Amino acid sequence: MISFGAAAPTAAAGGRSTSSAASPVTDRASTAVAAARADWSWPTAGRRHIVDAFDAPEHRFGAGHRGIDIAAAVGETITASANGTVIFSGPVAGRSVITVDHGGGLVSSYDPIVPNVRSGAPVSAGHVLGTLGPGHAMHCRSGCVHLGVRFEGAYVDPAPFFRPPRRSVLLPLDG
Ligand SMILES: [Zn+2]
């Protein structure tokens, strides 16, 4: 266990900024990602494959992909990526979404999920949020969970939060 206490940005303590300026948020987001990534885990147990990457919209309401799509089968268990509190569990524009507040300005959302948790429930990393529901066909035909991450309200690329699947490399001992 490595402590990241000294590096934790504690962004919330500094007061919430409602400014829409992009770059300071991006800088602080990078710091938050660096601090948080050690504690984040993939929401899927099996395949850890990003089928569709984050594509930041140029404008707040512009086109883009506000998250990543991780390969998953309908019915597959989807888990919380980090400790936090469920702040929303319900339909958004016809999709069943679960949103988790991780503190420090970080919020993650998962859809489409058939929920196992209710709003207000505390969760830890790996806690079952529910199962992958149908309805993301417009995103990826083979099935996926859409994961969005916001830092202080702005969407950031979730990919850096997740370490790539660990590959066991077996080195010859006779080297
Ligand atoms: Zn998506």
Structure description:
- With 175 residues, this protein is mainly β.
- It has a domain of 119 residues: Glucose Permease (Domain IIA), CATH 2.70.70.
- Helix content is 9%, strand content 31%.
- The protein contains 1 helix and 11 strands, in the order αβββββββββββ.
- Strands 1, 2, 4, 5, 6, 8, 10 and 11 form an 8-stranded antiparallel sheet that branches.
- A hairpin with a 2-residue loop joins strand 10 and strand 11.
- The longest helix has 15 residues.
- It is globular.
- The N terminus is likely disordered.
- Zinc ion binds next to loops.
Descriptive keywords:
single chain, 175 residues, mainly beta, Glucose Permease (Domain IIA), eight-stranded antiparallel beta sheet, three-stranded antiparallel beta sheet, 1 helix, 11 strands, 9% helix, binds zinc ion
